[in-house]
Backbone:
């Protein structure tokens, strides 16, 4: 084969491969787009300011919203963050920095096992741990369930992010006479921080989308509630209740509530982009 | 609080023979009256089974420059990293022997490597600016991370000028340190090491990515720093070793083959291997 024909051949193969890649990309995109399209097309009609701010109305009455469920979701996700983020990130940092001993290995093993546990099982555990001793469903139980879901994945993600920080940066800091712990915090974890923030927001977004663990723990509430000891509504449980109802206008509400949930998760993702943007010019 | 070092400290293999000393006597304490700023006694470094530094013994007088030369992979970096306990962090690395700075054994039990490293600065073979920090913050890092006060702006400018980088970065001190070119990053790391004013400066090929003008500036800087500091510099350039150093140590396969005044090493080496290396017959 002479040089020229082999060059043409390579160009053809290159084009062909690029086409195949584009095709698979499109295929992977179809389900994603169709979910978005369905939720938006079915849910957008019911979207209004009052949908965000009002309490649900009984079946047959027009109007009403999921304000209490939105607040409940934010409230319980907030509780879950208070418990889950420090524990998850802390465990991850521990695993990365000191996780080579027996303790570290067993913690890592448990985190791996736990991150594979279905969320409904976590719901039952939170039911046994919090609901039964308290005697009733509560926001705190929901928050605990979501936190238990967050911790193992967050710990493993944080560990990986801290581990990929080049050893040369730690060396650079230590060579300046900076103490070990300070090097860990101010240089190593600082360098991994943007990744850790992203991991946290993904964990939060995932928690916001959980239904099963809330069914046994926070249950539901028809009214506004900010008392952590009381049952609390959430978007996902509201979607669930509306969707399994026999009424058409409730089905429409389920779609709109789903759209609200998508908007919340979307905003979290945008927040992660903004928060992790480097403040330095020319950063690579 | 520092974790247990990954490096095991062991006494030298053979105790120093003492005339008619009874066996049960405790080993002699290190002598504090050493005239050397940095003294290495029977240093061995292992990476697992790889015996990378073999029985190296040498001393560096205060306010002198020692050049470390030798073919790639002979252990130059491994040697100078042992002088500020950088191997503590490397899994599988083990250091034996003694290194004294001002008569104090770095590898003795109870020595805090953190305090030691404030006195022994290091410029690494590969530039490693902190990616989350600006150019300015990188130079000031040793001060801010250690909580050292003072006029940081002035120190940063002074160190950047010394490292021959000021003119290139003075208008973009707030840009990321990693936005600089490789050679600029190398000089940034030199400036960062200077800012904490170490007594001993270890430089691992500080000019390997620099053009001749920047190299000349760094060599000038080394001359300047010699007034105050003790410097150990690894270099692949014979000319550079000849220009900047008072003494030269030639390493080969982890062993110190020969050390002496630079002029003697280059013109009249005792060892055949040294002569072959400095005249370019191998390496
Ligand atoms: N972190 C490490 N882990 C395992 N082996 C290592 C490590 N660092 C160095 N070595 C080994 O130690 C020996 C000496 O390496 P060193 O980096 O000191 O060479 P050098 O003289 O600095 O070479 P160069 O001129 O290429 O920088 C080599 O055989 C290398 O494989
Ligand atoms: Mg080297």
Residues:
């Amino acid at each position: 084969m002479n040089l020229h024909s082999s060059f043409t051949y390579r160009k053809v193969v290159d084009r062909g491969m690029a086409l195949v890649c584009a095709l698979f990309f499109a295929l992977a995109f179809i389900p994603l787009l169709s979910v978005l399209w369905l939720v938006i097309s079915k849910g957008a009609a019911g979207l209004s300011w009052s949908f965000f701010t009002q309490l649900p109305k009984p079946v047959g009455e027009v109007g009403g919203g999921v304000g209490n469920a939105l607040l409940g979701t934010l409230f319980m996700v907030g509780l879950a963050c208070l418990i889950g983020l420090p524990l998850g990130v802390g465990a991850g940092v521990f695993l990365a920095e000191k996780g080579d001993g027996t303790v570290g290995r067993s913690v890592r093993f448990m985190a791996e096992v736990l991150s594979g546990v279905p969320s409904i099982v976590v719901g039952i555990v939170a039911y046994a741990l919090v609901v039964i001793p308290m005697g009733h469903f509560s926001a705190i139980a929901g928050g605990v369930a979501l936190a238990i879901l967050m911790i193992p994945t967050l710990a493993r993600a944080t560990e990986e992010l801290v581990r990929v920080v080049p050893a040369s940066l730690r060396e650079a800091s230590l060579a300046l006479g900076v103490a070990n712990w300070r090097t860990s915090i101010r240089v190593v974890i600082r360098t991994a921080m943007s990744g850790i923030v992203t991991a946290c927001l993904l964990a939060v977004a995932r928690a916001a989308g959980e239904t099963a663990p809330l069914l046994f723990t926070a249950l539901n509430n028809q009214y506004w509630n900010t008392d952590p000891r009381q049952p609390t509504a959430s978007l996902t449980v509201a979607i669930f209740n509306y969707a399994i109802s026999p009424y058409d206008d409730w089905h429409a509400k389920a779609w709109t509530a789903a759209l609200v949930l998508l908007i919340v998760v979307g905003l979290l993702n945008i927040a992660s982009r903004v928060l992790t943007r480097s403040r330095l010019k020319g950063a690579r | 609080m520092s974790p247990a070092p990954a490096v095991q400290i062991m006494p030298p293999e053979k105790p120093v023979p003492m005339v008619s000393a009874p066996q049960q006597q405790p080993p002699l304490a290190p002598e504090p009256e050493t005239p050397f700023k940095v003294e290495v006694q029977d240093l061995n470094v292992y990476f697992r089974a790889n015996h990378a530094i073999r029985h190296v013994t040498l001393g560096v007088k205060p306010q002198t420059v020692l050049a470390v030369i030798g073919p790639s992979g002979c252990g130059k970096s491994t040697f100078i990293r042992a002088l500020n306990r950088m191997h503590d962090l490397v899994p599988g690395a083990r250091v034996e022997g003694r290194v004294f700075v001002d008569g104090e054994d770095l590898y003795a039990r109870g020595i805090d490597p953190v305090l030691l490293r404030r006195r022994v600065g290091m410029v690494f073979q590969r530039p490693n600016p902190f990616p989350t920090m600006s150019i300015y913050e990188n130079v000031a890092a040793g001060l801010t991370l250690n909580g050292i006060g003072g006029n940081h702006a002035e120190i940063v400018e002074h160190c950047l000028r010394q490292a021959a980088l000021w003119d290139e970065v003075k208008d973009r001190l707030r840009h990321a340190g990693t936005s600089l070119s490789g050679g600029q990053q190398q000089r940034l790391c030199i400036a960062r090491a200077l800012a904490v004013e170490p007594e001993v400066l270890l430089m691992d090929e500080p000019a390997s990515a620099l053009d001749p003008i920047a190299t000349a500036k760094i060599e000038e800087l080394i001359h300047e720093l010699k007034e105050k500091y003790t410097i150990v510099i690894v270099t692949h350039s014979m000319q550079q070793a000849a220009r900047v150093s008072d003494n030269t140590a030639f390493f080969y396969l982890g062993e110190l083959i020969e050390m002496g005044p630079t002029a003697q090493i280059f013109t009249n080496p005792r060892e055949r291997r040294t002569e072959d290396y400095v005249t370019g017959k191998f390496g």
Summary: The mean pLDDT of chain A is 90.
